[in-house]
What does this fold into?
Amino acid sequence: MIEVLIVTGPLGAGKTTAVNRLLKHEIASHRRVAVLINEFGSVSVDETLVNAERPELAGIANLVNGCVCCSLRDDVVKALAAWCDQPAGERPERVVMETTGLADPTELLDLELNPLLRGRLRLVGCLTIVSCLGPVDHLRTRELLRRQIALASQVHISKADLDPAQAMAWESEIRRAFPKIPLVQSRQGVTSADAVNPWDGDLQPLPKGWIKSEGPSFAKARSLTMHWDHPIDPTGLESLFQRPPLGGELLRAKGICSFDGWPARNDGSDLWAFQVADGRLEVAPLPAPTTDSPAARIAVIIGIGLDANSWQKALRGMERAPLGARKKVVLGP
It folds into this structure.
């Protein structure tokens, strides 16, 4: 049977970094591995990030504009069934399923019982990624985070190199609340050599009396996508997230862009990936595309109660069109 590992955790925790590490290890071990990526926005940024680093994958499925635990569940079943239908020697041996940070993974526990999948795949574990840079009291105040951890066969406390003291505080609180769940700290998706292999874990039994969450976990969240036509101002990007438009709560931002005045690197690529999580803007080089299709230059903003028009104007205002080129403008509502 195909083995499936769920990777979950809050928005911006570092799931895609961990997924890339997992895929790299599986490929190096000569196993056929596929990845199913779920993103809340209408365009997938994570698919581009994974594809750029792991072109050897046995398959990649990208589900956007919803959540695998509910609104996109039928699409999850179809994607997994399609892989199960492939002939021996071609079908993936393992699948990494990366959920959106707004998903409740406890809703995926009965996938094995679906008529299209019964006897063809096995859920082997749930790896939950938690950023140590978030407030520790989120473990007490955010039910979704507790559900993501409660199911875990292993928890990674990510970004431990950025704040070792905060990482220790998170480790102490999680161990107190969930003493039976294996837990390790990670740095850039890398754990200590003696860490348990996530594929060897067991899904935790949910506590007695645990009930399904009331409605979609992302009911109040909204996403906004901006497609850029030209390079953007790097200083403008930094300023935007230091002083975002007023109103609402920014949960996550990520995207792909080229920067005005920045030349192409030695690999020929002028693309950069950026993300905003835990109040920090991170920018990293994106390798040149492995296909003839150029990567889209996009920004995805996720939040609650955001002023969409103000964000669109701010994002579009960062573009630096070449002399003589036409530039789009955002009209008022």
Notes: The chain has two domains: 2-200, 222-316. The domain at 222-316 is CATH 3.30.1220.10 (Hypothetical Protein Yjia; Chain: A;domain 2).
